[in-house]
Amino acid sequence: MTQNKLPNVENAGGEKPENHNSDNPNAKPIAGWLKVIAMFFAGIIYVLREPALQLKSRVYDLKKEGPFWVLSGLLVSLAAGIGLGYQLGWQYDYDAVRWVFAGLVGALATYFYAWPAVVHLFLKGYIRLSKKVWKYLDFNLDPFKPMKAEDWLSQTVYHAIGVLTIGFGILSFWFVMTFIHAQLAIGFAGYLFGGLAGLLVGVGSGFLGMGLLNFAQLPWCATVIGAALIYFLRSFTQQYLPTEAFGFNITGLIYALELALWAGFIYPLLHIALTRIFTRFFVWLRETNHYVYHQPKGGYREFFLQLANIATAIAVFFFISVKFAPILAVSAGALYTIASVASLFVYVVFGKALNFLDNSFLSLVSSLMGGYCAYQYVLTFQIIHSSEWAFAAGFVVFFLSMIALFPIAYVALKVVFQPLLSSWLRDPLVNMHDVLSKELANSYDNTYKDKNEDYIALFSQTVSFVATIAAFIGSSILLTQFLDLNLIMSILLEIVIVISAYLTFGKLVRRFKTTLISRFFATVIAIFLGTQTYAFSSFHHISYVIGAISFILTLWIVFPVIYVLLKTLILTFRADYLLRFFVKLFDRIETTFERLWTAILENYAAIKATLDPMFENFSRAFKESWEQINKSAGGKK
Asked: In a designed cystine with 194, which of 54, 91, 177, 331 is the match (CB 3.0 to 4.6 A)?
């Protein structure tokens, strides 16, 4: 027998009840107006959630895409939030609650919607297309593989960016060092702290740049070149392209689009075009470079290097004569003497370096000078009102000079000079440099290792005599200007000073010979030039450098040359009488002084022997009288 169930009042119309919550069967159904509200919010959530999930699965999937897009999304969203907050808070004067809330919403919207949409719709397509373009650019940067002719531009760009990276590290070091030195204002110690910090920054930036260069190779080179072009051409960007939209400054976005367009498409296409057009020219240029930079010794090579060496020495002479005239603040004769010594030193040392390092060293030096001249030319004549452009011009001239200008000039000059000059002038120029270098080297040995005792004695006693004259002049000035003495006392004191100086110098030079004289002479020259520079110019720091350089040059070049020249003259004219005069003069004065001093000591001993008993008797009588006085005073007490 079946049981009849009671009819459902709410379902009396025959409608099937709805289960609004399948997870919870006991939940009550939602009323009509609440259902409308729920559907409205459900639609909003769907519209917000589903696109974010779809974009996330296509962009932020770590397994498929990796962490790059996630990290870039965080950075871009953070930048968007900060930019929006700044724009509303500082440009439109919104209160803190609204601009903070707007910045937060902008960051979230950028991360979940804007950035993944841009990546999915544009960037991924850009990357795919750019990869296809870059695949046509076949380059080889492996140093262990043979270089093809088509790799000339890749190798050139790669090594240019490497040199630029090293230069950037050096500039970073210099900037940080000078900045910290200026901020600390503690003198020379500031260079130590600044140099340490600059070394850390310079080495760090250099290692980072070289690491990126070795890792990304040519794409990194394209990025660096594009960033430099965008920076130098920023005025054109701001003038001809839109930099503002909806009240926001979009200059950074325009720069990013320019860099993407350049690195993704323009550079590889331009690279391919230049490679195919100029490969034959580069093959010739590469062969020319190999011929110039690997030319064996002999023939035209030595002639060219000696011409460059002579030109460098002449340039140093005129540079010091003109440039250092206000710095050294010395007479014209002294200035030309200094310039001559410096140019002679450069002629010998630079010629040796050129002969040892061949044309590559000369190319490096001349290219650096050319780049520096281009930099100064752009700044001086204000061709472009920007120091960055001046630096770029200097770097371009340096680089072009190394790879093209110097080799082409070398070959062109060889065509002209080899039949006209090199055939008969090469040997005299080379021999002149060799003979002069040997003589200067021998002059050092002949000066400090001279075995001619007679000439050493003559030279030493001559220097002692000259030093005595200088002591006489100095003592005369001292006695007349600073000491108020009568004539007899001044004469006696000056005689004592002159004789003492003469004997002291003579004894010292006899003991230490040319070593003492050269060091004393070099020290005097260094102090004189350094003091002149420090006192009569604003270049205080360079005065120490000038003093040190003049000391070294005097000790190693000037004094040995003077010594050898004087020795040659004296031995040539057989001036033995000078030796007899100066040596016998010193011996006689020394003997006379010793006799006088011995007589003084003997008379002093005789006087002392005579007066000592008298002083002893006087002292004994004084002590006895003093004891009697003490006893009398004690008796009264």
From this structure: 177
* pTM for the whole structure: 0.49
Q: What is the spatial distance between Cα 181 and Cα 178, in angstroms, rounded to a whole number? A: 5
Mean per-residue pLDDT for 265-286? Answer: 84
> What dihedral do alpha carbons 573, 577, 582, 583 form, nearest 10°?
110
Looking at residue 319, its pLDDT comes to 82
Please tell me the distance from the alpha carbon of residue 329 to that of residue 348, in angstroms, as a whole number. 27
Looking up tokens 């999304």, which residue turns up?
A: 73
Percent of the residues in the chain that have a pLDDT greater than 90, as a whole number? 3
Query: Per residue in 455-514, pLDDT tens?
Result: 676 676 677 777 777 777 777 766 666 666 666 767 777 777 777 766 776 666 666 667
Residues paired with residue 248 on neighbouring β-strands, in sequence order: 245
Write the CA distances from 454 to 91, 128, 459, integer angstroms. 92, 89, 9
For residue 119, the SS3 value is: helix
- What angle (nearest 5°) sits at the alpha carbon of residue 416, between those of residues 415 and 421? 115
Query: When comparing pLDDT for 392 and 449, which is higher?
Result: 392
Burial (Cβ within 10 Å: 0-12, 13-18, ≥19) of residue 157: buried
Mean pLDDT of the chain: 77
Instruction: Judge whether 426 and 302 are in contact, CB under 8 Å.
Output: yes
Give 557's contacts (C-beta < 8 A, 6+ positions apart): 341, 344, 345, 440
User: Distance between CA 406 and CA 293 in Å, rounded?
Assistant: 10
**DSSP 3-state of 305:** helix
Q: How far apart are CA 64 and CA 586, in angstroms?
A: 98
Which position has the token pair 């004393």?
520
Cα gap 129→612, rounded to integer Å:
116
* H runs (alpha helix) in 418-452: 423-448
Phi, psi of 245 (to 5 degrees): -150, 130
- Please tell me the predicted confidence (pLDDT) of residue 163: 86
DSSP three-state, residue 142: coil
* Distance separating alpha carbons of residues 247 and 242, to the nearest angstrom: 12
Mean pLDDT, rounded, for 65-82: 86
Q: Which of 271, 188, 282 is nearest to 222 (CA)?
A: 271
Tell me the two tokens of residue 32: 């009509």
CB 305 within 8 A of CB 362: yes
